[in-house]
Design a protein that fits this description.
mainly beta
Length: about 170
């Protein structure tokens, strides 16, 4: 997934963010910096951030990123629980020892959001140009839907307004 230049180093090519690991060694986020050429990613910074709910079960989360005027934003979705979070102002801090963290402001967007629903594509963008990241989803049945996010709050869930589902073709 696109991490833009969350590490503050602009090589002209976005860095990547992903989830890696296995059941034996656990799962974590990994930051893959680009070295100024297409496809030139080597080395990974293992991020120590817990999931938005405080766990280490990163294998259960889907990620979608976008860049807004106020910085990098990252949606995090757990399909099994329906938890949907938004991290804004995302920056990567390298600890210099192969580990790092994502600094961010966390918002709980929704609880029980599309719980158990298979989403083929989860994409973030500021769809309605209000400065707040929104979501696009594509479902296996070939329909897409926009979800407009408003009312972000540090003390409660946001407002998620679903648009009408439409066929891709």
């Amino acid at each position: 997934m696109n991490a833009f230049q969350a590490d503050g180093v602009d090589t002209g090519i976005p860095d990547l963010l992903g989830i890696a690991g296995d059941a034996t060694n656990g799962y974590r986020l990994g930051y893959h910096p680009n070295y100024s050429a297409p496809g030139l990613y080597y080395g990974v910074t293992g991020l120590t951030n817990p999931t938005p709910t405080g766990g280490t079960d990163w294998q259960n989360w889907s990620l979608a990123s976008t860049e807004t005027a106020s910085g990098i934003a990252l949606f995090l979705r757990n399909a099994g629980t329906g938890d949907l979070y938004l991290w804004t102002g995302v920056t990567m801090v390298d600890n210099g020892d192969g580990t790092g963290t994502l600094n961010r402001t966390q918002y709980q967007v929704a609880a029980n959001w599309n719980t158990g629903v298979t989403v083929s594509t989860l994409q973030a963008a500021d769809i309605n140009a209000d400065g707040t990241p929104d979501l696009w989803t594509v479902l296996p049945n070939g329909t897409y839907r926009a979800y407009l996010i408003s009312g972000l709050s540090s003390s409660g869930t946001a407002t998620v307004t679903a648009t009408r589902a439409r066929p891709l073709a």
